[in-house]
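hey can u check if this looks right to u? its 142 residues, i copy pasted from the old doc so theres a chance i mangled smth
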Amino acid sequence: MAAALAWLSACGDGYSVEGGLVWRPRPSDDDARVIVTVTKSQLDTWRQQQPLHSQQQPLARLSPQAQQALARLRLSAPRQCEAGATVYELRLADASGAQRYRSANWACGPDAQQGLSGYIATEDLQRLGELLAATPQTQDHP
């Protein structure tokens, strides 16, 4: 875990995905308290989604496999918006709940890109969600 945090801490200011998640800490950042959340939803229409479940873990408690999956996220083109499609969203937040990073694997409607920092490959988000679910003390929010 210390190696993963050291790697993440060495990269600059903020978050981005550049072939992998890049952590750019600011002086006020607290790496260990960052919360990683992957939400799986189903599109009801091209603009509305129905959340199915959400997996959430503090970065400090991620399994080595989940840390590796987080560090290896890949950018992709957004998925098409089709009713019934399964979609994923990744959020990183600080301990207060303030959003620090948000990405997804889909984009629908004129405001779809608002607040997004790129699109992540569906299989990467799906795998990260599975690994978060398998980590002890995972919270599953309906």
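The chain has one domain: 2-141.
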